[in-house]
């Protein structure tokens, strides 16, 4: 029997497990293959929905589904977090003390916000990367009556469009409340443009200029002084704020750090084959890789499709079948009811188009269709 173990039940792990269950259905039925998913929770969260929670447009119960309900019947699911890896001997151990051996291992444990890495950030800033934080942000936005809103971005971070989306959506939120003329926006970004993707940055600059959003680039956050309502950059800038909204820097999960699989919790990964560097039978998916490409759900989705094809080919024919092209697709909410998108890969940069209401509707539709997407049906 060929054993595939997937560690992590987020977007990438769930899509991959379902993909393999369908591709390898004959082998699973005959006992020639097994797909096992090891996860820390029996719930699956639609993480992009946290952005809408922060504006009161989605509720917490809309973000979750039972993980088992999203999986094909042939998948073996254990809610038993992995504790340690023994890659040399093709086995791992979970927190319950159970040892699992494998022929192929896929690690897709995701990433986590780490505002604590910057002095004062966790105590004084709002963000949208956990349910608690998104609900707190909503309360802060509701209570805000005017002043300077500063958006600050740390790197790396999950969902590359969030700094822009938060800015645009706050603009429309305060306009709808009738206090926009009492609000000043100040957006900061750590490199010499408004976004890591050059064409997205050029598009955003035109939008910001049109809306009157101020900005400063080459602003790497050093510390937050909550008593004075100020943020300080590594470059020496100081900005006053009345409301601070952050995209905190992210790090890999403790499991990756504790097992010394990669600096910062990012596992060195071949960008085309998705194999862990130096390990032919270990693959990495989604945020967990160190590939310099967007940490986004669509990245994990497209990687999972490539990896599903390759793992089934390895089991049947002993060889890889395809390479990951770096494909990513990200919606960009440009306000309350307008959106555009960025579609790109390793060789082709994005070319954002003017925002439209139609694309915004597509984005809202995808919020509902996600549950079919994660099952691998879209």
List segments where confidence is low: pLDDT < 50 over at least 5 consecutive residues: none
Number of helices: 10
Radius of gyration, CA atoms, in whole angstroms? 21 Å
| Whole-number total of structural domains | 2
How many individual β-strands?
21
CATH class of the largest domain: Alpha Beta
Global structural class: alpha/beta
Strand content: 15-25%
CATH architecture of the largest domain: 3-Layer(bba) Sandwich
> Main sheet: which strands, in order across?
5-2-1-9-19
Described by strand count, sense and barrel closure, the largest sheet is: 5 strands, parallel
Write down the overall mean pLDDT.
Answer: 96
Briefly note the CATH topology name of the largest domain.
Answer: FAD/NAD(P)-binding domain
The backbone outline, from C-alpha atoms, is elongated
N-C termini distance = 30 Å
Q: Write down the oligomeric state.
A: single chain
Percentage of residues in helical conformation: 25-40%
Q: Report the CATH superfamily of the largest domain.
A: FAD/NAD(P)-binding domain
